[in-house]
Design goal:
It is found in: Cytoplasm, Cytosol. This protein is of the alpha/beta class. Helix content is 50%, strand content 17%. It has one domain: 2-enoyl-CoA Hydratase, Chain A, domain 1, CATH 3.90.226.10. The chain binds ligand LP2KCY5N.
């Protein structure tokens, strides 16, 4: 069974849908491979104008890293996993076409980092958003804090990270992280309507603006900060606090 679907629509939008509703669309290594393939495709396909990332089902957009798979990783394995997804989110952040996270339900942990790498975040009303890493005894491990500090006012970003709470989409819109809250009766159609003015532009125009926007993130200094965050998370991964929090979550659910 496929872990993610890749669809092209007639407007030039590529839809990447994580298909693991039974794990609330958690990201495992197979999802990473599919995401890598999709980012490359959108970057190189002359017909592709935009990328939308979403999840299957009503409950979750993405619940972050697959704890059932990643809990067994030793220090070096965890570091490699975090760096591998970090590279992917860095290439998503700096992609030369506009990107959207269509948040169809809860976004937790790394799910928030995936969404933070996108240019726009549209959420179904009532979705819960949680940069909850602090409560798991870790920090954002895929570059999420670095991206948050780029995209939100400093105190707002720090507030979200330090609280590590589940926050309603409507509140995250007031904080500036969500760009549009949608009713969600037909979420994809509601998203398509928001994208219509963008996809009426040529690929060349969309690409030129996107390149202007992401140039600042291509410096060595930015990459250094992005991957230093990942190394700090890797150091916390093997802590007793993290192991206990993951065990508690997996046993409860
Ligand atoms: C690795 C990178 C790191 C980072 O950089 O941030 C991370 O991402 S750490 C992971 C952070 N995520 C979490 O802590 C898990 C968050 N999940 C939840 O809070 C909830 O599952 C939900 C997303 C709010 C959905 O709640 P609900 O609809 O009530 O579903 P359940 O909680 O009952 O879960 C159903 C089912 O799915 C399994 N599940 C959910 N999330 C994960 C996950 N991240 N990894 C693995 N499995 C996950 C859960 O265990 C249940 O399984 P079963 O009991 O077998 O049905």
């Amino acid at each position: 069974m496929t872990v993610a679907n890749i669809e092209h629509d007639r407007d030039g939008v590529v839809w990447f849908t994580i298909c693991r509703p039974e794990k609330r669309n958690a990201i495992n290594f197979e999802v990473m491979d599919k995401l890598k393939e999709t980012i490359k495709l959108v970057e190189n396909d002359r017909q592709a104008k935009m990328l939308v990332i979403t999840g299957t089902g009503e409950e979750a957009f993405c619940s972050g890293g697959d704890l059932s798979q990643f809990q067994h990783l030793q220090a070096e394995g965890a570091k490699q996993m975090l760096k591998r997804m970090g590279e992917l989110l860095y290439s998503l952040l700096t992609l030369s076409k506009p990107t959207v996270a269509l948040i169809n339900g809860a976004a937790m942990g790394g799910g928030c980092e995936l969404a933070s790498a996108c240019d726009f975040r549209y959420a179904k009303s009532g979705s819960k958003i949680g940069f909850i890493q602090g409560k798991l005894g870790i920090t954002t491990g895929w570059g999420g804090a670095t991206m948050l500090f780029e995209k939100l006012p400093y105190a707002q970003a720090l507030n979200i990270l330090l609280r590590a709470e589940r926050i309603q989409a409507e509140t995250m819109q007031a904080y500036g992280w969500i760009d549009a809250v949608l009713p969600g009766n037909d979420l994809r159609e509601e998203c398509r309507q928001l994208l219509a003015p963008y996809v009426s532009q040529s690929v060349a125009v969309l690409r030129a603006y996107k390149l202007a926007a992401v140039e600042k993130w291509k410096s060595d200094e930015f990459r250094m900060r992005f991957f230093a965050e990942i190394s700090r998370c890797a150091e916390l991964w093997g802590s007793e606090e993290h192991a206990k929090a993951v065990q508690a979550f997996l046993q409860k659910s």
